[in-house]
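Hey all, sorry for the wall of text incoming. These are the three entities for the joint prediction.
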Amino acid sequence: MTTATAIVPGLTMERRSTFWLRFSRNRSGVIAAAYLVLLTAVAFGAPLIAPYDPLEQTLAAINQQPSAAHWLGTDDIGRDILSRMMYGARVSLIAGVASVGLSLLIALPLGLVSGYVKGPLDTVIMRFADAVQTLPALVLALTISAVLGPGLRNATIALAVVFLPTFLRLIRGQVLAVREETYIEASRSIGTPTFDIIRHRVLHNIASPLIVQAAVTMGFALLAEAALSFLGLGVQPPSPSWGRMLSSSYTYVYTAGWQIFIPGVAIALTVLALNVLADALRDSLGREIRTS
Amino acid sequence: MTTLIVNEEVMDEVRADPLLSVENFAVEFATGHGWSRVVDDVSFSVRAGETMGLVGESGSGKSVTAMSIMRLIPTPPGRIAAGRILFEGQDLLALDEPQMRKVRGNHIAMIFQEPLTALNPAFTIGDQLVEAIRAHRKVTRKQAGDRAAELLDLVGIPGARQRLRDYPHRFSGGMLQRAMIAGALACSPKLLIADEPTTALDVTVQAQILTLLRGLQQEFNMAMLFISHDLGVVADICDRVAVMYAGQIVESATVYELFERPLHPYTEGLLLAMPQHGKPTDRLVPIPGVVPEAASVADRCRFETRCRYAADECRAAPVPLTSYGPRATRCVRSKDLVLGGTS
Amino acid sequence: MSDETLVKVQGLQKHFPVRSGLFGRVTAQVRAVDGVDFEIHRGETLGLVGESGSGKSTTGRAVLRLIEPSAGSVHFDGVDILSLDSGALRRTRARMQMIFQDPYSSLDPQATVADSVGEPLRVHRGLRGRARDDAVVELLETVGLQARHLRRFPYEFSGGQRQRICIARALAPSPDLLVCDEPVSALDVSIQAQVINLLEDIQQEFGIALLFISHDLAVVRHISDRIAVMYLGRIVEIGEAEQVYTQPRHPYTEALLSAIPVPDPVVQRRRDRIVLDGDIPSPLAPPPGCRFHTRCPYAMDVCREVDPPMIPMAGGGVACHLHDRGPRLHGRSVLEIEPRSRAAEPVHANVKP
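and here's what came out:
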């Protein structure tokens, strides 16, 4: 995971080796990680490995069952489903990573300041979080997408806003716990400037739960993006996306029932993989502190 | 070369049937790489009415030993690897859980270092005492309540009947430990295991609790297994002492003999390291280094790495506990070393 | 050690508001530190002894202004540190460092030894990379650790070793004052002696003044030049270490000494012991008059009404009516009289000739 090292500058060589050692012993975690790596490779290598152009229509061969020529069959206007799945994976992954990344980009500085400095700013930020959380997540995402207009970028922004309170709350809660630790007081007694303390001491020590939460949220983002696309607010046709494919195959559920399972299974598997990965990360990160 | 005088009178007492007898006891815990033996070849006994001290630093295995007697070691990750624990002649390790529950709190009671964590914050002190009493005695709630008030009064809590209605957080640390002692006394146990009962308390409160325990012990002729890291407290309350190091008993003796003339270099080291030793301007005499991993010293004397008297013979083989009359030591050089004590 | 004053604390108070109710109104004040005066000379060790709730740790933190005192003044090398702005305070902090009780929580678990010990070097001297590492290695060697420990994490060390790392970190900015808050309480006796010897060594070598806070009077007596005894937010007695330990002037000091068990069964079981009644009263509502009168075996009527002032004496002072109104000890030790609980007659009749 690139995110693990990007978020945690404190993961130095020694720390990483013990982390990898423990992670490598977690078999389901390794399988999930391998699946996600493979999926990423397929998604971004799609132009090279996809057997067909995902937009190429072959009206002579619509709704075909899986065959040697079309491993996963063709859709209602004769496009190769396998190729569309490959290209669609890219959309799903980008939506997941970008929405979580954007959300963290906003939540991290706000949450750190809110938790460490407290005061009126903390009150304002947390009341905002409360307000956002009173609305059901998907309804909120739908509303924002509808206001901003359909498209992958706007769907990503909508999801980032939806995730914001969760991250804010998590970060603030972690910071509140960490700031009471003696090593923070030690840094203050040394005369270390507050910003320096937040960057060097607080951030490292809240990273583990944050990474885990990011992985879980990515799974949710994938699902939400699919839902938005299904409802026509995400990626616009003819671009392939798992949510879109789900929505178009839905029409032919009686005539070509297998079609709905392909994006469905892909979404379920990917969400599952992200959750298993999150569990494995939680079990592998930061054990040194607990066992000592 | 010194001779060890064996007092025949003391020997008679030693031969008398003990209340609790721990024999060649060993506990192992599962780690990432196999089983780690945290208590090894531990043997000691507690006679009716006496206070046996189990003294050692962190990681010496003294608390694990105490918890094992109550069968409170979680299995897994722990397991009892060897030995017997005889209480009034019956092997506690052979009892099933329902039988053990009858022993726990009834014949053997235990108090802990942190009384607050041993009590349920959601119930009043009275509720918890009543529950403890009714677990072992067929009495009505009313009778149990009266007994609870009596017990609180006994351990010196003023206004006992009113305080029964208080929740644990309303009690100070010293008062909580008193309440814990009251609970432990509920069924007049024959043996009280006290695991660092005063470590979390202030010294003036510690003095109160030690005085209380000493008084209660005499009143009820109760035996006590007193676990502590503090040699001062041990000197105050124990009749006999076993010193533990890295999972083993390295020396046992009566409290007077142990302090006056230790037979094991570790005991000597502990005494010398105390700030009360020598003149206040003297430099303290620490024991160098840290406690080693038990596995790394399994083939030799476990204290050898830190011992100022270590010789080749100490590295040759594991050292057995050797008895000299009522005393015992796990040192191959005990016969040619003259160690310094308090005298 | 010299007679030059390094730290001068006057009328120090720290009250913590207790908020309750729906709107968080302040309903009471915890008077953690309630009027404390003392001085620390250059290179000397002042021991600050007390039980939980005595305010000793709060006092230590207020001296470094890690918490803002409610009243009073703290002068460090002639500068009123309570008047400094945050930038000036941070620069001054380089000269006054702290060691904490718990060696497990006082090091960042995610930071290497080089990072932790190097923090003051980075902040105050701008050292980075190789230059920082070289300086850290030198500090590690001063406290008995080695260069190979540089890239290790706290979890790889024992409690005693961690405390050494903390000491190295505190030494990094070359301080004049080291506040040690129960630095050996979490350690085993054998390790405790190692750390105390180390503290004595570095004090000798660098001429640092120590404010040594502890509940353990035996340890404090060993390391201190002078001792101040605190009870419920006040200093009740201050004096030369040997005098406080062997000839205590305040009944609380006597009780504290009496309560520490001597590691010798022969001596311990022959001692006259004073077992104080009850608990330390709540600092929310300290008793009127002398704060110790509720537990004092010598308490007189005046003690219940009049708060005893600190009476200056040779080498220090004592705040007790036994020295100004009672049996008139005039600075002699309280050991000379019998406590009321043991004496049949009124206290003043028991002054030995």
